[in-house]
Amino acid sequence: MSTIKIKLKRSPIGSIENHRRTIKALGLRKVGQVVEKSDTPQIRGMIGKVSHMVEIVD
User: Which range is the signal sequence, renumbered to this chain (predicted)?
Assistant: First the structure.
């Protein structure tokens, strides 16, 4: 299965609780941190939910 790299580009401080939990579930803690996750529909859905705070990097 392929993987996808996700970078936190904006702090979750001040955002709604669901978005903060989604960021935490993705394994992101600090702004600028990059995590590698498997490319599944569930992960894509979480990225879509917080797309204004994360970006996909190559």
Answer: none
> Has residue 54 got a pLDDT over 80?
yes
Q: What is the pTM of this model?
A: 0.91
Determine the structural domain holding residue 12 and report its residue range: 3-56
CATH of the domain at 14: 3.30.1390.20
Q: Which long-range contacts (CB under 8 A, 24 or more apart) does 18-27 make?
A: 18/49, 19/49, 19/50, 19/53, 22/46, 22/49, 22/50, 23/50, 23/53, 23/54, 26/50, 26/54
Question: Tell me: the pLDDT tens digits for 21-45?
Answer: 999 999 999 999 999 999 999 999 9
With the C-alpha atoms ordered 11, 17, 18, 20, is the resulting torsion angle positive or negative?
A: positive
